[in-house]
Amino acid sequence: MKNRRRLLHSTLTRPLAAAITLTALIAFVGCGDDEKNPAAPGGGVTPTSGFTGLMTNGQQSGKITITVNSTTLAGRLPAHRAGAAEVAASANFTFGGATNMATGVYSEEGDTLNLSGSGYTFAGELDLDGGSGPPSLVGQFDGPGGLGFFGALSNELSPTIYCGKFWNTAMDDSGTFNVAMNDTAFASVFLSAVAPDLASVSGQVSGTGTTRTLSGLEGDMSTFEFSVDGTLNTTTGMMSGTWTYTSYDVPGYGPSDDGTWEASLCP
């Protein structure tokens, strides 16, 4: 995927653009009521808000779980922000073969997350999918392996996280391939190890039993189309498939490309 696309501004200097990857999964599973607590649907009361997601820097990838000590994240109306404050937050993450922890704060006023620990720092923001669905936290991290992207979905969606790799057919590009999915939808993130290019495709999950099918498409026929297809074995937790990027000769979108990917349940 080296210099192939600028689907999401194509660089880690603007990682929050990748929120579209995760909020697309939210859109597939339905919308919420704007007046309900996004972290406790149906008016339920819980002591914290939980998120589960992925993190990757193009060379390696892993799973992250984030806890925010608040159940009223990002009030839908300005009045809901009265008395906003900083609350404690933490993350447990498995990355590079090690399990780590980071702690810090979530700012209710700015809906921002800042954590540090185990040699890593995380800076992210809350995304509410236009105020219509459960929240996600997306942002950038820095660590021993350099900069990376993280994105975590509300635990309302019961996301399952897969870590893997992708290759192109010409074998001149490769990187990490991560998936967040539930029974009906998936969101995938490609991050090249050759160049800091971030791309994503979301789609639907179909089938029952041992074999599930993944099929997703982003873009349009005026600029580009980026598709992902594959299968998941629910018994082994292994998935694999193909990807195709078709460019329609628009400056900045690079040449067409294609290849394969594979992934398994993140540790």
Structural class: mainly beta
- Runs in which pLDDT lies below 50 for 5 or more consecutive residues are 2-21, 28-46, 75-79
**Dominant shape:** globular
Q: Mean pLDDT across all residues, rounded?
A: 81
How many strands in all? 16
Give the number of helices. Answer: 1
How helical, in percent, are the residues?
under 10%
Question: What share of residues are in beta strands?
Answer: over 45%
| Number of spatially distinct domains | 1
Task: Write a short abstract of this structure.
Helix content is 4%, strand content 52%.
Could you characterize the architecture of this molecule?
This protein is mainly beta and about 270 residues long. Helices cover about 5% and strands about 50% of the residues. The strands form two sheets. Strands 1-2-3-4-5-6-7-8 form an eight-stranded antiparallel barrel. It has an eight-stranded antiparallel beta barrel with strand order 9-10-11-12-13-14-15-16. The two termini are about 25 Å apart. The relative contact order is 0.20.
Topology:
Layout: H1 19-28, E1 49-56, E2 61-68, E3 86-95, E4 98-107, E5 112-117, E6 120-127, E7 136-143, E8 146-154, E9 160-168, E10 174-181, E11 185-192, E12 198-206, E13 211-220, E14 224-233, E15 238-247, E16 257-265
Antiparallel strand pairs: 1-2, 1-8, 2-3, 3-4, 4-5, 5-6, 6-7, 7-8, 9-10, 9-16, 10-11, 11-12, 12-13, 13-14, 14-15, 15-16
